[in-house]
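Page 47, continued from p. 46.
Same chain as before, 465 aa.
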Amino acid sequence: MAREAHDKVNPHINAVIEFYEDAETVQGANGGIFHGVPFLRKDSGASEAGRLQENGSRLFKGLRPDIDSYFFRRAREAGLRTLGRTTTPEFGSTIMTESILNGITRNPWDLRCSAGGSSGGAAAAVAAGITPIAHGSDGGGSIRIPASWCGLVGLNPSRGRVSAGPKYQDGNGASRTFVLCRTVRDMAAALDAFSGSYPGDPFIIVQPDRPYTAELSQPTGRLRVGVARSSWGAINLDPEVLRVVDATATLLEEMGHAVQDIDPPYEPTEYRRTYFDPTSASMLEEAARAMGRIISSETLEPVTLKLYEFSRNLPLSRAADVQEACRRIRLRLGEAIHGFDILLTPTMPMVAVPHGGVFSATDPTVSAEGYVEAATASCQYTEVFNFTGQPSVSLPLSQSATGLPIGIQVVSRFGDEGTLVRIARDLEEALPWRHRRPTIWAGEGAATLSDGLGNCANDEYEGSR
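Result:
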């Protein structure tokens, strides 16, 4: 079925860059929680031994890691069958899944629109019905952003909840590995399947006393909810997104929760200081040597090359400045939200935007500084929780007037995915989304595959471009 679905919709969306030739013989454990469920792997992050992992970059073309990530060992133990590889922008570094190596990944709701990034291939594949669940990773919103734009459930777990071992642990825990899926139940089941540490992990987190699927039958209790109704960055909040935040806050009040507005917890200029780490240049140089290639316009995309050239000329002391900026933001955010059990924020300040432009690393007219300014503005509600390590989930609670998905983010205290499962269940029951289908859909009774046009957000929107 997954092969048929892939063949039907992937030519329209370009989400899967490799459907394994031996997919029919790939096995998962018998009797696992996801026994026999087809699964897809993002082309960066967690790896499968011997399978291509090119990180969306010509620099890594042909790379085959020699080790299985713990994540994919657990995937097999849970019964998942990994059948192929999904697109990602170069190094997973942008909110648009576009690359010179693999082309543009299109949003199943409207082919003119971005599916988001960097787990855009995973999101587009799940949204279009190729598989019900797919691997993703999130270092600044890379699960939650495409979940928001493609109408999916996208959880970024607590730092240390899911191991990236034995080879890909992130030294500061900002980037985490998990999945994109369609329902809260699947999210809870995935937490049960993937939670756990690996020997040598830099962060070890206390695991829950009961399965996350058991949380689905537990009462939520009365929560203190902080609501973000204003912009936290240089892009103004789309009125349609604000409408959904307002409606969700009202709903939570009607459920008996205590709701209070919160002010922006950091300054955009302070946020931008967390970028341009000079150590990233040396890491790229080391990777190029390992691949037997040189860093040039033939191996890196235009914006990535500009970022590399900018970073390599920075003093090494800049790395300490970046860490200090991150520390200050963690402190300010922690102080601002300490009194709340959960936060309610937009996932993105706008609905899905057209391909290309300032958010794309393939555009040679975009400067390094302009790209960073756009990145920090677009990720204003997501990346700060990568810094703090808190779990956060994007839920597809509504749609725009033109039918594009609108994701709303719920954030809980560090290590408290249980509360997220319960409140996400409550919102899914009150505002169900399972009946919605995109224009490009592989399932029975879905809309006819059309040109996928007609819903995309305008090229222009309020705020900085």
